[in-house]
Amino acid sequence: MNAIVDFLGGDIVVTAIVKTVVAFAALLLTTLIVVWAERKVIADMQARIGPNRWGPYGILQTLADGIKLFFKEDFRPRTADKWTFALAPVLAMVPSLLAFAIVPIGDHITIGDRRIDLIVADLNIGILYFLAMGSIGVYGVVLAGWASGSKYPLLGGIRASAQMISYEIALGLSLVPVVLAAGSLSTVDIVAAQAGSVSNVSFFNGVPVLEQIAELFSFVPNWYIWSQWPAFFIFLIAGIAETNRAPFDLPEAETELIAGFHTEYSGIRFALFFLGEYVHVVIISAMAVTLFFGGWGGPKPDFLPWIWPIGWFVFKTGLFVYLFVWLRATMPRLRYDRLMWLGWKRLIPASLVWIMVTAVVNTEGVSRNARLVVFGILFVIVLFWLGKGDPRLTGAVTPQRRRVHGPS
Amino acid sequence: MSLPDYLPILFLIILSTVFALASMLAASKLTPKRVTEAKSQPYESGIVPETGLDDRERFPVKFYLVAMLFIIFDIETVFLYPWAVAYGDLALFGLYEMLVFVGILLVAYAYVWKRGGLEWAE
Description:
Shape of chain B: flat
Oligomer: heterodimer
Number of strands of chain A: 2
Number of helices of chain B: 3
């Protein structure tokens, strides 16, 4: 064993290989379960049975589908650009798998005298890396649409890229206040900053009655969802739009564009797109948990202490995946102009203003959570007041073609 | 932080790329190949397709505008990150600096909005 370790260049390399393989396998397995869970939950919501043939409760359905797709003929239109068409699915899938590297799924475990952090790579630029992987994922989609040499995929591809880059700005901006509060881009540090209880908020110090009230809430964890909840909602909306999922699934709007950018894809290449999309859903859920819900934090009984953080992480992430499914079953698809309106005219200014609010409140370098909660409420009231009477928010009016006129 | 931190990322890139390419290669050996005229046409809901190769470059110019705006605002986001990390040390100086920066950007943003650059449907 030691000889192998030395041959491979020591502990670091071996740990890296083991982590990578475990993370990769876990992610694929998670995807299989998530796809099945989505079909089952949606079936329940629509009073259907859903998959029930393969394995108990149909849990092997995704695997069966995967195997089927593997053996299906993989053809392409003669107008397609051969190599770009072939490689676009790889470019769509790989970045979304890579983003998982910076998600801390638990504390650390000790094997022998070796301490192993339960994260694939704790980068000091973690959040930037996460955003970068999201950006690279756009290439896969737009190249797939372009390379198909067909109308619907082209429209789906450019729609997808315009949507993804629009919401990427809001996504990036919504994470800045969190980084500001934690003072670090590392996801491990951000999770660590959310440990402890809300009653340690310095805002209440020195005020006797408020201090006692704060003491009552000492069981509430100090998650960023409390002080950063406007950022959380912006992140969630932008995150859903980023994954091209309902109600933001315009790039593959089946009533308009057949299947959008992957209309011409079949067989294993389609499966790779599919895999990438669901991995992306898992990643966004995991990031929401990591950044706003304390990551793997949670009560830790003495029994098997290392497994609880992983359990909490999986549980919280599962709730968010459920939210994704729930939204898909509930919300109608947005119209494209409203999508752009929401992204550019609401989310971007809202997140910019919220960054400034957080910055002002944090001037002394201490996070004043209580004040942020107050400002958050004010902020949302102002937002609603600004949006009031906007026909697009209420959905009362459809835009009409303006009269043709000269330069104004 | 050092280079070994990125080692798992390198492995993950290799592993996932190899996985994708290998499954595509294996599938290409295992799947049937029966090319017919109908299969090699671009899909246009069953009607005779009109797509030619030149259609690839033609799409509404609005998307181009979105891409331009994206570059401006994305660079802004990139500027905000180092500022957010260092904010604890910068304190008030950092706040004023960023207020000026965001202020200038908001002026540009208001201008684009006013000119109708953010309007999708007219």
